[in-house]
Amino acid sequence: MKRAPYWWKKSVVYQIYPRSFYDSNGDGIGDIPGVIEKLDYVKELGCDTIWICPFYASSNYDNGYDITDYQKILPEFGTMEDVERLIFEAHKRGIHLVIDMVVNHTSCEHPWFLKSKIGELDLEGKPNPYRDFYIWKKGKKVSDGHGGFTFAEPNNWEAIFGGSAWSQAEDGSEDYFLHIFSPKQPDLNWESPALRRKIFEMMSWWLDKGVDGFRMDAICYISKDPNFPDSMDGNIRPYAAFGPHFEEFARELNREVLSRYENVMTVAEMSESTPERAEVFANEDGSVFSMIFQFQHLDLDGGDSFKWTHRKIDLRALKKLMGFWQKNLFGRAWNSLYWSNHDQPRIFARFGEAEGPFHEKSAKMIAACSHLMQGTPYVFQGEELGMTNYPFRDIEEVRDIESLNAWEKFTADGTFTEDEMLELISLRGRDNARTPIQWDDSQNAGFTTGTPWIGVNPNYRKINAKEQLSREDSVFRFYQKLIALRKELELVTTGRYVSLDEENPETFAYLRVAPEPDSVEKLLVMSNFTDHEAKVNFPESFLRENRSLDTEILLGNEPSRTEFTLSEPSLTLTPYETLIIRFFQR
Ligand code: TEU
Ligand code: CA
């Protein structure tokens, strides 16, 4: 497929978690042929790019994010021919395909690691070329308490999925290998030129197959602090993210791989990101990545035990933060816009209502509020249906390595009781996003004819695609209109962001202003985040400047709202209402 320069700026991405999307052969696991069968659904929604989560050969401890062969497909997902067909069928429909590239680490069962862990010498006693592919450090010499000594972890870094970030290989040496995530996911050593070469060749191989880009998994971690110092509280992120060679490696990846193909899209997953970093790594000249996934907005409800908390996001803090990103990146870098993905709970854990009269209305409001900002919006599968968290009642129902490890740790050390922890998993756990897509009201929500690998949300008879498609006022239909609006109105892509009524704790209002100085065209997006009526206040200057302009309602979620004129200093929105107004001169 021919790719236009910066095509992603006008794109809306649909994220597919293949394991839970659609099962074509009844083994309970979603697969690539299943994705192909549902491409028309994605097309109907209006998305023109798919980001598909890992489908490579994997040991599956972390659902595909632990790769054993980058150039093979996990048999339960299908074959390489299926993936080639997916590329072809997506392109046939004008849909770009962006694949998930997990190159910070591999599986502990990847042949490179199996060879690496043999030791500094290979089986023939020669220097082992694979040793350097991973990060090995001598253990720290510590007293054994009996006058002798023993070896301990090189430092106190904690893995993101719990426990020490260092584990020992069974090679009889005192060496430890580093794993930022789980011991099943050893970190690759990007300091090794031979390793980088292998990665670059492999990524080029995928581009040669015709994929349109990559979502770069956990990429901010590929360069670590070379001194491996102890961390104050065990937190690994300050030392493992954005190390001294990160920018160099990222630019090399661009030079050696991305820039050799035409208009490849990359979205780089980067926790610990700030607008200053986005300016470097998602800059306009295309010398690094196309855009990044930042996490600051999702960290607003983090707590002492990381994500395991009931804390709520303060709307004022959210508005300031989003506005800060919008303003700082304007003309310099490109934003991604998302609330949900396979690592996050369903949106209603944060905003709106999962049940009751405002369920759908709130889902639409949240979508409009983020889709009309500047950047590339991401729709995570099921979001367009208003899918909700799963009511986990037993730890046996949980599949996610992160949640299971957290359960072990926090129930053992007394941070939480079992009941509390289960409640937190139901609220914040990653499996909430990973339950099967609810296609219709038949058994297993039409996802599979077999036994699904993870429970289907019991609300599928009410919330499902078939029902949503049959109704004009559904969440799906609203997403369709929202996506179409982005395609029709240049302003959504190019407009400058101006925040309005920023101190208001209940409503979120902003303007998108045409960048051409001689244009008066503007969009006004107003959203009520509460379950009661709430006001948006217009500053005097705003009223003065815009009162004489013509207005039209472009989209909203309140059927009784049929007119809008800018006459009063404030407007009262109904519960969870969103209202999108265009200002123009006739
Ligand atoms: O996530 C990396 C990441 O930055 C984590 O901190 C993420 O926020 C985590 O899921 C916290 O709940 C990526 C993938 O998206 C994730 O699914 C993988 O498990 C992880 O990398 C390891 O590959
Ligand atoms: Ca299957």
Could you please describe the fold and organization of this structure?
By secondary structure, the chain is an alpha/beta fold. It folds into five domains: 10-102 and 335-390 and 436-488, Alpha-Beta Barrel (TIM Barrel); 111-178, Alpha-Beta Complex (Oligo-1,6-glucosidase, domain 2), CATH 3.90.400; 202-288 and 295-332, no CATH class; 392-434, no CATH class; 494-584, Immunoglobulin-like (Sandwich). It is built from 17 helices and 22 strands. It has an eight-stranded parallel β-sheet, with helices on one face. α8 (275-281) runs parallel beside α10. It is globular, with a radius of gyration of 25 Å. The chain binds 1-O-alpha-D-glucopyranosyl-D-fructose (TEU) and calcium ion. Calcium ion (CA) is lined by residues 23-25, 27, 29, 31.
| Major sheet size, sense and barrel closure | 8 strands, parallel
Shape: globular
Ions, cofactors and other ligands present here are:
1-O-alpha-D-glucopyranosyl-D-fructose, calcium ion
Within the largest sheet, what's the order of strands? 13-12-11-5-2-1-15-14
CATH class of the largest domain: Alpha Beta
Please name the fourth-level CATH homologous superfamily of the largest domain. Glycosidases
Q: Which range best describes the helical content: under 10%, 10-25%, 25-40%, 40-55%, 55-70% or over 70%? A: 25-40%
Please state the CA-atom Rg, rounded to the nearest Å.
25 Å
User: Mean of the pLDDT scores?
Assistant: 97
**For the terminal residues, how far apart are their CA atoms?**
39 Å
Treating each run of at least 4 consecutive H or I residues as one helix, how many helices? 17
Strand content: 15-25%
- Poorly predicted ranges (pLDDT <50, ≥5 residues)? none
> How many beta strands in the DSSP annotation?
22
How many domains? The number is 5
Please name the CATH architecture of the largest domain. Alpha-Beta Barrel
- Structural category: alpha/beta
CATH topology description of the largest domain? TIM Barrel
